[in-house]
Every structure is written in structure tokens, then in C-alpha cells.
Amino acid sequence: MLHKYQEKIISLWVVFLLGLLFHTQLGLMPLFHGLNIVVSQSQNMAEIAPIMWLMLSFFVLPMAAIVGTVLTNTRRYRIIHFGFTVLYTMLNLSHLIADLMVQPIAWYQIALMAILFLIGLLINVVSFQWVQDGKHPHSLAKII
């Protein structure tokens, strides 16, 4: 059976990135209804610049993973990529927990973060299968 791990991984990363964009967009939706989204007007751009750089990194690194997955199929890259997917799953879980701490809780954001967490787990599974490909041809890890 032909396994197209790279195509699956790329598709899942694209879905994940679309979910991240929608997560950001959901935070801005109140603007369209004339509601204020500003938390603190005492902050200036210099104070939030590091956060913006972290957000940029959080978006750009999956894009780099997509490009890397398109361009390489080496075992070393597969292992690095799998570690990267596990890191993102942990970051998504921590983000989900952090969103639960914000009052009032925006349940639509929680639902979206839970979906993103599940997509991240799927990326973990397929990435693990990609690492295992060729090592154990009859492995139980090939569930997707």
C-alpha cells in the first residue's frame, strides 16, 4: 500500500494554519459589531513587539515545515519534523489551558483551540508514521 505521508502532513499543516488564522480572526470579530477589543490602552507597541514576533514565529514555523516536507524526505528531517510537531502540540495544549484562564471564557475560541489541538495530534500521528516508514513495514502505527 502506498502511503503519501508528505501529502497528508502538508494538508494537515495547511488546515492547522487556517485554524490559527481563524483563531486570530475570531478575536477581531467584535470589531464588526462596534465592540471594543482593546484590553489595555496603556500598552504601546514597544511593549507588545516581542509578543508580535512570537506570533509571527508561531505562524512562520509551520510554513517552513510545509516547505521542508515538500523538499526533503530524509530520515533526519522526518525525526526533526516529528519533534517539531510534538512541540507544537504541547504549545497548543498550553494555549488551550491559557484560554481557559481568561475571564470571561470565550467558548467559541476554546472549541476552535480544541479542534486545533486534535489536528495537531493527527499531525503527530502521521509524522510518527512517516518516521517509522520503512523501519517496520507491518507496524500498528499505520492507522491513518
Describe the protein.
The chain has 144 residues and is mostly helical. The protein is 72% helix and 0% strand. The protein contains four helices and no strands. It has helices spanning 5-28, 45-71, 75-101, 107-132. Helix 1 packs antiparallel against helix 2 and helix 1 packs antiparallel against helix 4. The radius of gyration is 18 Å and the shape is elongated. The chain starts with a helix and ends in a 12-residue tail after the last helix.
Q: What would you say about this model in short?
A:
The chain is mostly helical. Helices cover 72% and strands 0% of the residues.
Set out the fold topology.
Elements: H1 5-28, H2 45-71, H3 75-101, H4 107-132
Helix pairs in contact: 1-2, 1-4, 3-4
The structure class reads mainly alpha
Poorly predicted segments: 137-144
Taken in chain order, the helices and strands follow as HHHH
> How many DSSP-defined strands?
0
Q: Overall 3D geometry?
A: elongated
Rounded mean pLDDT score: 83
Key terms:
mainly alpha, 72% helix, 144 residues
